[in-house]
Amino acid sequence: MSTSNSNPGFTDETGLSDLTDRYTTLLLNSERQAANDLIMQAIDGGIPVKDIYLKVFQPALYEIGRLWQANKISVAQEHFCTAATQLIMSQLYPAIFNSNKTGKRLVATCVGGELHEIGVRMVADFFEMEGWDTYYIGANSPADSILQSLESMKADLLAISASMTFNVGTVKKLISAIKTTEVGAAVTIMVGGRPFNIATDLWKEVQADCYAPDPPTAITTANSFFKDSL
Fold first, then answer.
1. What is the tens place of the pLDDT at every residue in 152-174?
2. Residue 21 Cα to chain centre, angstroms
3. pTM of this prediction?
């Protein structure tokens, strides 16, 4: 895809609009190494990892998703951009896994059938940066496996993500299965994702304990639940 067709023209609201614009254009032109170098230069220049996540990666991926939905890029291009961003995120882990520990533990997962896991990975990374020990188990993990993870990790919080509306029922079934066990009943369950952002009371219907629309709010919400033990 040519650069002239891929320039998303981000506004200056994020404060990093030029960086976001350049990053998105590089991805859409399949220049993964150049995109990686751009982000590493930004980090070396003093831009915080959290700002890279929220003000570069997130709006870039939203724009790429919009282009795909508008049939302006192929699903292969969309998948490439997502995979490239996940790879670049992994290059930032030395900075992420370098926080003083709080003693709290998070297990993060997506329900089965989800096409995008990067959102909940970002949430898990934010918790790592806040000193939590996190265990990301991805999508398509059955309830039994999640319960085993909760028990082995001695988790305090379970984060469940769904990006597609038709998966809300699956979230509800998963939460119900978890809460009927001794291990699951002792864990706080947080949900997030596009359906919950659209209908902000939906988290109550799936019987979650709380909901967060974005990584910073997830941290604030979790801290409110565990303020006496942090």
1. 999 999 999 998 888 899 999 99
2. 21
3. 0.86
